[in-house]
TrEMBL record:
<keyword id="KW-0813">Transport</keyword>
<dbReference type="InterPro" id="IPR035906">
    <property type="entry name" value="MetI-like_sf"/>
</dbReference>
<keyword id="KW-1003">Cell membrane</keyword>
<keyword id="KW-0472">Membrane</keyword>
<protein>
    <recommendedName>
        <fullName>Putative glutamine transport system permease protein GlnP</fullName>
    </recommendedName>
</protein>
<dbReference type="GO" id="GO:0043190">
    <property type="term" value="C:ATP-binding cassette (ABC) transporter complex"/>
</dbReference>
<dbReference type="GO" id="GO:0022857">
    <property type="term" value="F:transmembrane transporter activity"/>
</dbReference>
<comment type="function">
    <text>Part of the binding-protein-dependent transport system for glutamine; probably responsible for the translocation of the substrate across the membrane.</text>
</comment>
<keyword id="KW-1133">Transmembrane helix</keyword>
<dbReference type="Pfam" id="PF00528">
    <property type="entry name" value="BPD_transp_1"/>
</dbReference>
<feature type="domain" description="ABC transmembrane type-1">
    <location>
        <begin position="117"/>
        <end position="304"/>
    </location>
</feature>
<keyword id="KW-0812">Transmembrane</keyword>
<feature type="transmembrane region" description="Helical">
    <location>
        <begin position="285"/>
        <end position="304"/>
    </location>
</feature>
<feature type="transmembrane region" description="Helical">
    <location>
        <begin position="7"/>
        <end position="28"/>
    </location>
</feature>
<feature type="transmembrane region" description="Helical">
    <location>
        <begin position="153"/>
        <end position="176"/>
    </location>
</feature>
<dbReference type="InterPro" id="IPR010065">
    <property type="entry name" value="AA_ABC_transptr_permease_3TM"/>
</dbReference>
<dbReference type="GO" id="GO:0006865">
    <property type="term" value="P:amino acid transport"/>
</dbReference>
Length: 315
């Protein structure tokens, strides 16, 4: 057991190593004469550009006050009132046409990268939900005494785990999606769910088989049916043992979700590519994208560790 001073010494050594690696990368970037432009990335994370407030129809500005601008429409409809503006573009008496900028407001808005992060999180959570249901069913089929269930589950797991996810996404979108009239998001969710479900099935199977057979025998001897014994005795114990690999699979799912960008879903990866096409800050954008993925997976790992500690304390 290391004493406290020696532990801090090793911590300091690790910090020095990390700092050395970062310094090496910085020196290497200087060798390629790359000019870092981190300011170009900020608007793609948090957009602070003024927001234009436009007229919904033709009309005349009839009133301008510090609190509101009133546009009386020629159509006779209810006047359009612009409230909480920061800069007035039109003056009282101006003739306004549909689409003209009447005022501007300054507000912080989520940029394309944060929107992409939200899409990544949404598609990952939805895919995990369906993948867990599919994986649980397939895992139970794998340990079933029914040969048909075993064969179907074995074929599903073998087929999905034996083919690349990228190919499965293309097949799901261009072939299955065309037949079922699926949109891009639904096709992406289905592909990720089916892919992740195959791995969850093996995690469930191994977790259930790690429980002593005596647990099932004891439950059945108490008069429980097989489904009831599985639900109330076996699966709760298996869940505690499979939580770490399940968390790892969820982290993999978040990273694998970047592949749905190939079917034009604007997730974090696609948002990064679009940002690069707009500002040409290639290194800065991809480092930012990697950092956002890292933040997401790190928070998830922290939550899982908290759950593990709670479950351990309840034993």
């Amino acid at each position: 057991m290391l004493t406290s001073p020696r532990r801090w010494l090793w911590h300091g050594l690790s910090v020095l190593i990390i700092a050395g690696l970062m310094g090496t990368l910085y020196i290497a970037s200087k060798q390629i004469n790359y000019s870092w432009q981190w300011a170009r990335v900020l608007p793609y994370i948090v957009n602070t550009a003024p927001l234009d407030l436009r007229a919904s129809g033709n009309g005349t500005i009839t009133e301008v006050t510090p609190d509101a601008i009133t546009l009386t429409l020629d159509s006779g409809d209810k006047p359009q009132v612009f409230k909480s503006y920061d800069q007035a573009v039109a003056a009282q008496g101006d003739l306004i046409f549909e689409g003209d900028v009447v005022a501007r407001t300054v507000q912080w808005r989520a940029g394309p990268l944060l929107h992409g992060l939200w899409v990544t999180l949404k598609i990952s959570v939805i895919s995990l939900f369906f993948a867990t249901l599919l994986g649980l069913a397939a895992g139970l089929m794998r340990i079933s005494s029914n040969p048909a269930c075993q064969n179907l589950a074995f074929a599903y797991v073998g087929l999905i785990r034996g083919t690349p996810l990228l190919v499965q996404i293309f097949i799901m979108y261009f072939f299955v999606g065309t037949m079922l009239n699926l949109d891009r998001f639904s096709a992406g969710v289905m592909a990720l769910s089916i892919f992740t479900g195959a791995y969850i099935a093996e995690i469930v199977r191994s977790g259930i088989q790690s429980i002593s057979p005596g647990q099932m025998e004891a439950a059945r001897s108490l008069g429980m049916s097989y489904p009831k014994a599985m639900t109330h005795v076996i699966l709760p114990q298996a869940f505690k043992r499979t939580l770490p690999p399940m968390a790892g699979q969820l982290i993999n799912l978040i990273k694998d979700s970047s592949l749905v960008s190939v079917i034009a879903i604007t997730d974090l990866t696609k948002a990064g590519r679009e940002a690069i096409s707009g500002n040409f800050a290639t290194f800065e954008v991809w480092i930012t994208v990697a950092g956002l993925y890292l933040i997401l997976t790190t928070l998830l790992s922290w939550v899982v560790r908290r759950i593990e500690k709670r479950l351990a304390a309840s034993d």
